[in-house]
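TA notes, week 10

Several of you asked for a full example with nothing omitted. So below is the full record: structure tokens for the whole chain, then the designed sequence directly under it. When grading your own attempts, check the secondary structure regions first.
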């Protein structure tokens, strides 16, 4: 049985995620109260379903503290469980609600006859969902298009869930730091290929840019130091029952240095036998 739990902030893309899973043969349930999840799973197992996707929102707040234990119980029964937490920054969420002209689900949480502000509703929702962050793969959709989000979810669900997933994510500081990052490393101190007219239109995925960066002594030192830091602390995160760890690598525009270093680190962790306990993904937020 494959169970995918989609949760996160309203307006962050939960419907996009659920529609994708429905299109890939998952039995999907939207806005299920969290306390009904065990009964739903039991019923669908009896009916012969093998792929279930459930969207759970903040309106079932009283049960969120119980969800991590429910997830552990499912896994002890041999179920493959993935929890995906979608988020976005406040400005993006406010803009999305303004464009759709929809009311936030928690807008009348405190008063019967008067809506709370949209900003207050978003803050309340973040507080309620906090218990799920530590057991989820977090995706910041602030700058993502729907197709990009679908691709990232497909990548996540292709992984086995019995090993920790380490994600290396490049980004550009001028576009903002990703909200889903556990660690952020700044590589703007390295020589910038942007100032070479021939290299400027290329990216860290292109060989000329790679050759340029490989020729810089500090590039190798930076990669070595980041690898050493991550290697040292990964076991502690695994002991804390973390399933996912996101390491963000940032340069100015997110096109050259961060892309190259994220690729280099992902390659080391994916092929080095000392890191075999982890699964590795790489994303390039600005290139996407």
């Amino acid at each position: 049985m494959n169970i995918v739990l989609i949760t996160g902030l309203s307006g962050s893309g939960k419907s996009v995620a659920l529609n994708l899973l429905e299109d890939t043969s998952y039995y999907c349930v939207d806005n299920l109260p969290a306390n009904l999840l065990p009964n739903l799973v039991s019923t669908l197992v009896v009916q012969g379903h093998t792929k279930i996707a459930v969207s759970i929102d903040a309106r079932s707040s009283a049960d969120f503290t119980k969800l991590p234990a429910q997830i552990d119980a499912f896994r002890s029964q041999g179920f493959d469980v993935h929890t995906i937490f979608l988020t976005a920054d406040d400005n993006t969420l406010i803009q999305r609600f303004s464009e759709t002209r929809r009311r936030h689900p928690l807008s009348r949480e405190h008063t019967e006859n008067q809506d709370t502000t949209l900003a207050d509703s978003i803050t309340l929702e973040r507080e309620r969902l906090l218990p799920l962050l530590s057991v989820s793969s977090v995706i910041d959709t602030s700058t993502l298009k729907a197709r990009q989000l679908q691709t990232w979810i497909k990548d996540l669900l292709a992984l086995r869930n019995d090993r920790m997933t380490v994600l290396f994510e490049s980004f550009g500081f001028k576009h903002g730091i990703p909200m889903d990052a556990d660690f952020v490393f700044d590589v703007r101190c390295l020589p910038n290929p942007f100032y070479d007219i021939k290299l400027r239109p290329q990216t860290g995925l292109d060989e000329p840019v790679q050759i340029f960066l490989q020729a810089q002594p500090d590039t190798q030192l930076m990669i070595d130091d980041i690898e050493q830091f991550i290697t040292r602390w990964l076991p502690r995160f695994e002991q804390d029952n973390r399933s996912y760890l996101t390491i963000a690598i940032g340069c100015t525009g997110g096109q050259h240095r961060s892309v190259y270093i994220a690729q280099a680190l992902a390659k080391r962790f994916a092929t080095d036998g000392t890191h075999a306990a982890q699964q590795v993904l790489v994303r390039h937020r600005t290139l996407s």
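The chain has a mean pLDDT of 88. Use that as a sanity check on your answer.
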